[in-house]
Predict the 3D structure of the following.
Amino acid sequence: MKDDETPTTELPDDFSEIIAGDGTAPDDAVSADPVVADADVDMSRVSGWRRILRGNRTLWIVALCAVVSLVAGLLVGRFLIAPAEASEAPDPGLVTVPVEFGSLSNDVTLRADVGYADAVDVTIDTTGGGSVVTGSVPEVGATLNPLSIALEVVGRPVIVLPGELPAYRTLRFGVSGPDVVQLKQALVSVGIDAGDVASNLFDLATANAVGQLYAQAGYPAPAPEEGADETVRSAEQGVRDAQSSVTQAQQALTAAGAGPTKLESWQADVKVAQAEQALAEAKACTPGGESPCPSIQQAEWDVQTAKLERDQLWSAKNTGPEKAALDSARSQVDAANKALESARQSVLPYLPAGEVLFLTELPRRVDAVNVKRGSTIQGSVMTVSGAAVRLTGAAAEADARLLKVGAEATFELPDGTQQRAVISELKPGKDNKARWDVLFEPDPLTPEQITQLQGNNVRVQIAVGATEGDVLSVPLAALTAGPGGESRVEIVESDPREGKDAKTRTVVVKTGLAAKGAVEVTAVDGDLEEGDLVVVGR
């Protein structure tokens, strides 16, 4: 191309199409002016490349990343030394751990929930009366003791007593059963004489004890059934009437069986004497006198008759009817007494099922209250738990069998100090795979500590084996077996970084308690001291 010639540019077919498709003039429509034509061509080329870049942006970004990665790889490779070209690396040093001196213990560690013991939902039997709460609603955190009033329903108390059986029936005179024994034992435990505690019969002594229970609680005993007092008064009158009938019958019997009166006896004697006198006169009479002589025979008969009449007065009387009347009157008295006894029993103090709440392990703490004054009881009225704090944890069977009731444990308080606890109960799981329940009783806690711990989960440690004082110990990995099966450790006496060239010696040891990855050791052959470096790896 000559200097004076205007350069020309040949466009590929595709670019020509792009330009044509872009609305620019086709080849045959290009301006005849060469300068204008070249300018049009350059603008078309720029527009075409711009269109290609915009339509394939993702492709260009991927290509750019590939180029950057290639350059970075080349640069990194320039500074790396191939293994064949690198000089020989130095031997690694020995892995050592110093011999420890101190106490060593084997612990069982578990998690435990902190809470009050034996939470139970309290329900009240309201089938025998109303169900409106009228007072004595406890606050959350309150303590229920024996003789406490857990609640007041329709003006009547719900008295707290110790016991395991729930109240399921009214206890009154004449009933018997294990719940009666429980009631007697509970009354005795609060200082009330309930009679024979071994007897399961609710007797008069038990009824009197229930009356004392209500007196101590500050409430009157439950009122007897309607009409019971009138029945007692009627029975008492029946006894009096029956006793009066007995008196009358006794008098009639006495009268019927009594002998003659003094007058009747005197008159009989006089009659006998007169008859005898007449007989004597008849015998002394001389016939032919002025008056005829009475018949001696008749006079003898009169004497005999007078004597028989006198003897008849002293003979035994027939008192059978009077005796029968007396027996009947006495039977009426017995029946009246029985009716009176039954009537009096109906007014003796009794204990409705809805007015007593038996709870184990008193005192108890109120955890939640579901009712308020004026509300109607529906379901559980409150939740109570043991007043003492308890830790409840779980352990695998293998760990649980290492534990025993009375073993000491420790857990951390919110301020970081350690608190002592004692295992109070171990409950095996249902099968070999189930975890055991482990219950702990902590040493006394302050109210503030209880508030902070309540509902938390804490880490509990129980020592199941410990050394007697301080001992030397090494990691289990430091032990090796000698040719005779003896245990050995390797002590490094030079710089461990020398690796295989480091100076070492072997000490034969006797092992003891193993715990937390370490084992108690005592030198048998060789010297071993605190701080010596033992080899645990190469």
In short: The longest helix spans residues 228-257.
